[in-house]
Structures are given as structure tokens and as C-alpha cells.
Amino acid sequence: MQVYKVGGAVRDRLLGLPVTDVDRVVVGATTEEMLAKGFRPVGADFPVFLHPKTGEEYALARTERKSGRGYGGFTFYASPEVTLEEDLIRRDLTINAMAEDDQLNLTDPYHGQRDLEARILRHVSPAFAEDPLRVLRVARFAARYAGLGFTVADETMDLMRQLSESGELQALTAERSWKEISRALMEDHPQVFIQVLRDCGALKELMPEVDALFGVPQPETHHPEIDTGLHTLSVLEQSSLHKQPLTVRWACLLHDLGKGLTPEEEWPRHIAHEHTGLKLIKAVNERFKVPKDCQELALLVGQYHTHGHRALELKASTLLELLQSFDIYRRPQRFEEFIAACEMDARGRKGLEQRSYPQADYLRGAAKAAREVAVQPLLEQGFKGPELGEALKRERLKALKAYKEAATA
Predict the structure, then answer these.
(1) Domain range for 151
(2) GO BP, one example (predicted)?
(3) Which of 119, 159, 189, 264 lies 20 to 30 Å (CA to CA) from residue 102?
């Protein structure tokens, strides 16, 4: 029995990056031998075990064969006869197909170290094209390592195009797709993920609503970059530079979907795109079974982001409606995330990345003024039920008028 570290642990150590997840492969062992040593089985499809003391994962060396459509369409074969090289060849990229023993002796049959040094993301074998999930994975690695200068090899991009055109991407489950998308959006360069998907034709298959934004012009006075797709990439880039959470990054990706529906004869203006885009945002949310907090923020940002930009011009009554829509009294964090998404949208414009965004503090101040309206005096005056709600609304409106007058004086 021989044990090797494989995949990301080897790759990141060679890159000089922190090693977080350690995967191990066991060569020359049977399931019975692993159980006899106290390992606990956890793999449903193939033999994976947890170490009896550390709880770390150990997988038996295995081969795989395509047996159906999609990510799950494989049969696996694990046996003591399967070699380390046979196990490594089924992996996606050469930089993930290296192994090392406890003495750090490297096994690198597919030249992963060479590709690390050349900053190339390259597939290990033609079997790459059997698994559609690998399109998303490669795009995610491109987003992770873009800052180090990594790019996708031309021949790998060709295979990704073949996969995109084959219809296999449609066989991916919503859960698997979202897992890759959400991880990619939290990488250092999430805009690269979207760009790589677009370059290989996968964006058109997975998120046609986002793909449709490329080539759609916007007024140059507000958008020096003009192209709506490029603007979306820039907004995503800003969301990463400003360390925004996943909810904000997802909202940033989807906020302008309505512009993809504007008739060409109306370009570059996009009247009411905030409302026309809501059905598209809802469709993307449902397609990937997106978590509720991400769904809700994306819809709210889509509908109200232009309100955010025009915050200082809004009437007090409109401002109150905006605050009510976000339920700022019970969910203050959601409104804070809305403000963040609006600021990323404002900064995601060519040459305007460092612009100030006074609307952020103005909106925070408005929310504070509305929250500070006390309920107790109204209760003491005898208001209750619907009448209390109306009285509270009147007092909040009065507070917002006073706030607006003072803030814009």
C-alpha cells in the first residue's frame, strides 16, 4: 500500500501558495485492507475513506469510463492493480495530475510542473471532453490563477468549445453548476470566469441572458466602455477588488439583464430595463436553484439599482418606498448589500473606477433616519392595527423629509 498527496495540494505547494485541502490516493490496497486499518468508508460511487484519527480523505486509485450523459455519467473501477499513472490520467488538468509521497518525491507523468511554470491550463487527455463539468472547472481555475498569468491552452479551449456545442452542458444538474459558479464568483478574478465561458461558447448555453449583453451599447456619457457585457465584467471585477460577499457578486452579474431585451432601434437607451430584466433574473435564479439570499438580492438590485444612483434626487416618499421594499427594519444587512452592489455598478465603468459614491452614505443616513422613528409615542396616542402602520409611515416620511432637507442643503 502506497499513499500519495494528489491534485491541488501538490499544485499549490509548487506555486508557493497556502495548501488548504489535501487529497490522498492509495495505490495497491483493497477496500477490505482499508477497513481493517480502521478507515471509515464514505464514497457512494467509488471507494473513499476517512482516516481513523485525522478524518482526512483517502481514495483508492481508480479508473473511470464514460457510461452516460453529464457529470454523473461514469462508471469507476478501483483495484490494487490500478497504477498511480492510471489514476492521474483521469484528472482534468495537467497541473492537477501530479502526486507526491511523504518525502516530496514528485510523480508527474503528464508534465504538470512544466505547465505550472509556463502558466498554462492544459487538459491531461482527450477524456477531458467526456465530462461537461470540466468546462466550468477550467473557467474557475482561470479566474483563480489569472493574477499569476495563467491562460487556457488553445487545444483545451477547442475541447471546451466541442463540449459547449455538444449539448452535454444541459445534462449538468443545477446543484453541480451552482457549486462551480458560486466558487468561481468568489475567486480573485470572477470576470475571467465569465469571459472564458463566453470564449468557449458555454455562456450562451448556461446563461444566455448574460451572453446577450455583449455587443449591446449603452449611452457613452454614463458608460465610457459602451458595451453592456464589458460593463458587467467590470462590475464583477470591482466586486472582487472590494471583497464583496457572494450575494453582492451574484447581483452584480445579473443587474443589467434587461438591457439584453431592448430593441435595437432604441439603442443605446434602455428605458425601464430594471423592470424588463426581472423575469430574466428570476429565470436564471430558478435554473441554478440559487440560494434564497442570492435570489432576493439579485431581484432587488435589478429593480432598484437606478434608484440607488439617483438617491439624492429621490422624493422623500420614493425614498421611503425604497426602504420599505428592503425591509430595512428587520433586515438591515440586505440594504447594506444593495448599496454595495450599486457602488460596484457605478465604479464598473471605464476610467471611473476610483469615483466617489456619495449616494452610499446618503442612503445609509436615510435608513438611519427612518429606523429612529419611535413606535412607543404612537402607541401611547392610542394607535393600533392598520392605523398604527399608517401613523408610523407618516412619521417616517416626515423624518425622511427633514433628513433630505438637511443633507441636500
Answers:
(1) 119-197
(2) RNA repair
(3) 119
